[in-house]
Design brief:
Distance between the termini: 14 Å
Structural class: alpha/beta
Number of domains: 1
Strand order of the largest sheet: 1-2
Strand content: 5-15%
Helix content: 25-40%
Length: 259
Amino acid sequence: MALMAAGGKITPMPDCAIFADTGAEPKKVYEWLDWLERRLPYRVHRVQAGNLRDEILGAMRGKNRMDARPPFFTLSGGMLNRQCTQDFKILPIQKKVGELISHRPGARWPLDVRVIQWIGISCDEAQRMKPSRLACIQHRWPLIEMKMTRADCLQWLGESGWQGESGFDRPPKSACTFCPYHDNAMWRDMKINDPESFADACAIDEAIRLGMAGPRRPEGDAWFVHRSLKPLAQVDFRSAEDAGQMSMFGNECEGMCGV
């Protein structure tokens, strides 16, 4: 979406872009962002509310609270409440938007639209579209407007020449290395193609095992990064077909794994 705007495929030209950095992205995400910034005619603001990885490790060592914890899986059942997106993504972006429109901290937000915020959700994930909670920010979804899927985006990147110039086969997925929402295809891709990030995810998984002590944690409970409730390093990420079982639906892969 950023490159489409730079080339005039999406108009008008944005005034800026904002990237909320949790401090726990895979190395390739930062490399892609470095390359992208050099190609865009508008500024990319990098904002950060802190380092989520350090906050988690500090909390496990009793050095701080972990208010913005990811939705880890628990042995007692279910997932922890997710607060990391709000604290490390949404709020830092809103704070930067406030600075750009000269909004004074602590004051009431304006009631008239001041900002059109583009969000790069594709047709594959249209269910994620949500209106802005602030009246001065209006959301827009350009990829939805153009009826583009993830596969369409990859095709456009290849046809436009950006794919070859960047040195990346595809833009790496922006997400914390230890995000519990990764599916097995994502975990497998990370383990094979980005062992450094996978090792980092395994380290976090081991660190959270006993969770944070407190009256709200059931006795004998344990936390895990993977939904199988097994140590991440021991999980078999192969699908049934990979393990040698025949798929009753045939091979319908569309080449979108890991996007």
